[in-house]
Amino acid sequence: MKMIRAALFSAFFLIGTFVSALEPIPDKLVVLGFDDCNKSDRNFVAGVLKKYGFGATFYVTEGLG
């Protein structure tokens, strides 16, 4: 199971990197990352970011729900 997860993670990472490389990088770039957040954090923050036209990467930890 761990090998499957690692393979899927690698595949998604490589695909995401390839797709990102096709888009031009904006002059002003800010990277938002939310590490070890809860689902509720993601749900609240994602709505606010979407309202103002921003995106982010969320790392939701399984045990934190």
From TrEMBL:
Q: Which Gene3D superfamilies match?
A: Glycoside hydrolase/deacetylase
- A GO biological process this protein is involved in? carbohydrate metabolic process
- Name of this chain's protein: NodB homology domain-containing protein
